[in-house]
Amino acid sequence: MPGVEQAVQDFKAEVMKNEGYAVDPNRPDDVKFEVAKELGIPLQHGANGQLTTEEAGQIGGKIGGSMVREMIRLAEQQLAKQRQS
Predict the structure, then answer these.
(1) CB-hemisphere CA count at 13 Å for 18?
(2) Domain limits for position 34
């Protein structure tokens, strides 16, 4: 679907900014390096074959978990509005 990838990147940037991370809206994927640093995980640009599955999951889980929580919050908000109508 055209435009979906950009919408997801914009959503990721907004969510992570709201979580207190410095996010460049033009490069929202870079937030993973800030998350990795916070978690003490040695993520580098390029190959990261030295990372364990657990380390990679911690980085992605922090970002994805935040995004899922926000999606649930938005859905609950929309449902509440529909019930009021």
Answers:
(1) 11
(2) 4-84
